[in-house]
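Quick one:
INPUT:
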């Protein structure tokens, strides 16, 4: 057991944090060595197994990321952009792998993460599932094969607690479609339709967002032409797919040089 990579989970009390903790504890390829929460959180100072409703496991929840990271080989991080930037700096200082599932990041956040990746292995993806990454590859290929006479729309649905829109996965799919067409998504993105918008602009990549209930994640990429439509779809019914993918990334990253990677690299796609 001592040879297994040690994993720290940030945002331990969140729904993804708890799923990640359960996934690591259930794995025979890694071990849980740390759980992070923000200053003042009720879980601080308590055994994470107990506060999750189970038996003690000997891992105490802390807000001191730097201290937790020096005992670890990787950190898996599904939190918020500003927190992720800080974790990236601490992970780089500790020289451990940083797996990032955080979405909603702006260019400033990404620039700071890139700086940290000069000293450590960073694996960042809008979605950690195998199926979504296969969908991403297919989206790029279909977009490259079809001309602008096919309009592209990315439609996504998530639970009512999600705070960013479009989702990181939707943007990842949009980036893939734009890359397939040889353009920048920022030049063709359309995600703000309301009122009298006028006709759709040829070549734009549109986004539509649904929020409701406990939807784990649904993504459609629609290619709409005259007289025909092609729809590529992924439906997630279990949040565990993201946790399992993130853990796979953390283990894969142990053999990689410093730099930025994504799930396509991890999966060899």
């Amino acid at each position: 057991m001592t040879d297994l990579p040690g994993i720290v989970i940030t945002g331990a009390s969140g729904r993804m944090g708890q799923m990640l903790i359960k996934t690591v504890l259930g794995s025979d390829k890694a071990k849980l060595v740390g759980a992070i929460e923000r200053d003042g959180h009720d879980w601080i100072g308590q055994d994470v197994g107990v506060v999750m409703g189970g038996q003690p496991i000997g891992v105490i929840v802390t807000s001191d990321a730097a201290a937790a990271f020096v005992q670890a080989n990787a950190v898996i991080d599904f939190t918020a952009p500003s927190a992720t930037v800080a974790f990236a700096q601490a992970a780089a200082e500790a020289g451990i792998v940083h797996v990032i599932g955080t979405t909603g990041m702006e260019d400033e956040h990404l620039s700071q993460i890139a700086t940290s990746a000069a000293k450590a292995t960073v694996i960042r993806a809008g979605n950690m599932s195998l199926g979504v990454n296969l969908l991403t590859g297919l989206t790029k290929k279909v977009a490259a094969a079809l001309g602008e006479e096919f309009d592209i729309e990315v439609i996504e649905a998530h639970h009512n607690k999600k705070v960013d829109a479009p989702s990181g996965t939707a943007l990842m799919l949009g980036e893939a479609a734009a890359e397939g067409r040889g353009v920048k998504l920022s030049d063709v993105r359309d995600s703000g339709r309301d009122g009298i918008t006028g006709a759709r602009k040829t070549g734009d990549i549109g986004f539509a967002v649904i929020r409701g209930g406990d939807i784990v994640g649904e993504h459609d990429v629609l290619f709409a032409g005259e007289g025909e439509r092609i729809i590529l779809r992924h439906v997630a019914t279990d949040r565990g797919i993201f946790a399992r993918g993130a853990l796979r990334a953390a283990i894969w990253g142990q053999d990689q040089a410093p730099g930025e990677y994504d799930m396509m690299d991890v999966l060899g796609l």
